[in-house]
Amino acid sequence: MSSDGRAVDRTNIQKVTLAVGAVFLLVGLLGFIPGITTNYQALGFAGHGSEALLLGIFQVSVLHNIVHLLFGAAGIAMARSAVQSRNYLVGGGAIYLVLWIYGLLIGKDTAANFVPVNTADDWLHFVLGVAMVGLGVALSRGTARAGRPTTATR
């Protein structure tokens, strides 16, 4: 809603950013739910010693879940404009690609794995990085200058 009570149209990039942010918030919350997160009793604050697995696949910790929550909140906040949405998707995607490379290079049982991540996380980070950068670039084409939504003329 705008300040005068009218509905404000969102661009496609804003809608996607809002959805991505909501998914990250959901993932962060699910990481704290026993059953959805297996080995929940082994959920550590940080480090490779956390043996909790989101959906029985992705290694998580309290820190990992908090990062997902913050990343999700950032996406929802940045979905307010097309420019910020592009920055979130492209910048966030670049961060995930760096995390993918980091995860491939570190020893999984070392102090460097402080978030923590496992092989499934690594490849999910790759897919997220490529998808987010791709969506950010593709959907930012044709958006209005200065982040204003484009409107179709009749």
Shape: globular
Overall strand count: 3
Side by side, the strands of the main sheet go 1-2-3
Q: Describe the main β-sheet briefly.
A: 3 strands, antiparallel
Walk me through what this model shows.
By secondary structure, the protein is mainly alpha-helical. It has helices at 12-30, 62-78, 82-105, 119-140, and strands spanning 37-38, 52-54, 58-60. Strands 1-2-3 form a three-stranded antiparallel sheet. A hairpin with a 3-residue loop joins strand 2 and strand 3. Helix 3 (82-105) packs antiparallel against helix 4. The radius of gyration is 18 Å and the shape is globular. It starts with 11 loop residues before the first helix and ends in a 14-residue tail after the last helix.
Keywords:
154 residues, globular, disordered C terminus
Quick overview:
With 154 residues, the chain is mainly alpha-helical.
Lay out the secondary structure:
Elements: H1 12-30, E1 37-38, E2 52-54, E3 58-60, H2 62-78, H3 82-105, H4 119-140
Antiparallel strand pairs: 1-2, 2-3
Helix pairs in contact: 1-2, 1-3, 2-3, 3-4
